Sequence to fold (311 residues):
Amino acid sequence: MADEIRDVVIMGSGCSGLTAAIYSARAKLRPLVLEGHEPGGQLSMTTLVENFPGWPDGIQGPVLIENMRKQAERFGAEFRVGHVDAADLTQRPFVLTVGREQIRTRTIIIASGASARWLGLPSEHALIGHGVSSCATCDGFFFSGKEIAVIGGGDSAMEEALFLTRFASKVTLIHRRDAFRASKIMLDRAKAHEKIHFMPDTVVEEVMDVQAKEVTALKLRNVLTGKVWDFPTSAMFLGIGHTPNAAMFHETLETDDDGYLKTRDYVHTGVPGVYACGDVADRRYRQAITASGTGCMAAIEVEKYLEETGH
Ligand code: NAP
Fold:
């Protein structure tokens, strides 16, 4: 184990972790950012971001992330490729295991995000950012006047479908069975909307057209009849849920039924010195700006905690 004891280690390099890095670096805490499995987080997988304040013409998600990272580095944040395999919160300083290395730290900011669930089709993966999206708020605008497909049968899918009616000429909600997990109110609202058409008992087998680098159609299969057909559409939005990246804390920190970290006073976990920010603790807003906001809060709490504990 290295002798060094860090003041703060930030788990995750999406906009919440990077904002925490900027603030804690400017506070001269020399944060160590462990980049995680998806460096840059969900923003690094989107294209144009038009709702992050300060960019009147929008900014590409990967550029926004790169800018935040440079800003954090300018003030002394350190970055390391790596994923935390285990976190021991029972000892002080805390001990994080990253591969063969053990890192000791007085505080931890958990900003490991949530990963959108995908269908897992190679053609789907190839067209992310080119008509395949998991964020209607981010990408719906690009499909004004077009026909859009939404996949899923829960509240997320209903919410995405309803939101997308602002832009789309028609929204087709494709669900793998005919019973819905969505709350009655959301389901009724979606069913009552003239632009939303329901297609139950149907699964997506392939997204086209990978060669053309744009979504033109979905190959669909009716699970009851076995019928397969090509369904023309300009976009496919996934609304099949998110998975918070917090599995390693399920024994040590409080989570809700779906595994999101529970916080109080915005970013406090149940363990003093351990803070959670961004999508790993937020199932409700899930926006870049809210993730950045809570990243800032976590960094300020770290500063206060270190002051109060005499470091
Ligand atoms: P969810 O309730 O778990 O629903 C996920 C949906 O995606 C289900 O219909 C599921 O189908 C489908 N699905 C999952 N994997 C799939 C796959 N591989 N292929 C095809 N379909 C698949 O997730 P959620 O909608 O994100 O909601 C999560 C929680 O957040 C819920 O408690 C919800 O109420 C809440 N939420 C609330 C709001 C709101 O109130 N405004 C908005 C969003 C979310 P099956 O049903 O067949 O499993």
About this structure: The domain at 5-115+242-308 is CATH 3.50.50.60 (FAD/NAD(P)-binding domain). Residues 117, 119, 151-157, 159, 176-177, 181, 183, 240-241, 283 surround NAP (CB under 6 Å). Residues 288-308 form the longest helix (21 residues). The radius of gyration is 21 Å.
